[in-house]
Design a protein that fits this description.
Elements (H helix, E strand, L loop, with lengths): L2 H11 L1 E2 L2 E2 L4 H8 L3 E5 L8 E5 L2 E5 L5 E7 L4 E3 L2 H4 L4 E3 L4 H10 L4 E3 L8 E6 L5 E5 L7 E7 L7 H7 L1
Antiparallel strand pairs: 1-2, 3-4, 4-5, 5-6, 6-12, 7-8, 9-10, 10-11, 11-12
Helix pairs in contact: 1-4
């Protein structure tokens, strides 16, 4: 399976194996192993926390549910957890806009330009099925290159926060 197959599958389904918005953190760790703990989103609180499996980054709420998901593709290679993508989990980066669009079209994944994240030297498209976004950097005089792919949050309303306030 190539990186475009992985990303188009995520765009169609809103998930990467056991990883999806609202997934239980213990299920993700059971499938993927121990992540890198990247720290908190706020200096004043312990949660939410940002974790990473190579270039797969996950924000996890205090109730231990996955709340945001993105795949960083701007590096020299894209590393994803081998247990859920197979092989070494390492893929070539530098994905061009035309290649991503062609892969989405081949997969039958409808998409549209996404104006809220299109400005300056960036353009973004959105997969209609899942709401996944593909943000491209536009180097001067060159074809757009994929910078990050993200799956939307699920509008999570943390019950742990509500319970803690009681």
């Amino acid at each position: 399976m190539g990186i475009l197959d992985v990303l188009t599958s995520m765009a169609k389904t809103g998930r990467l194996g056991p990883v999806f918005s609202g997934a239980d953190w213990s299920d993700v760790k059971a499938a993927c192993g121990e992540p890198w703990d990247m720290g908190t989103a706020s200096r004043n609180r312990k949660w939410p926390r940002l974790f990473a499996y190579g270039d797969l980054e996950l924000s996890v709420c205090r109730c231990r549910k996955v709340s945001l998901i993105c795949v960083q593709t701007w590096r020299d290679a894209v590393e994803l957890p081998p247990p859920i993508v197979g092989g070494t989990g390492t893929f070539p980066a530098g994905l061009k806009y035309a290649d991503v669009v062609a892969a989405l079209d081949r997969a039958g994944c409808s998409w549209e330009p996404y104006a809220p994240l299109t400005f300056g030297s960036q353009c973004t498209l959105k997969a209609i099925a899942s709401g996944a976004t593909f943000a491209f950097e536009i180097p001067e005089g060159e074809e757009p290159v994929l910078n990050v792919m993200g799956l939307p949050g699920d509008g999570h309303d943390c019950s742990a926060l509500t319970a803690a306030l009681r």
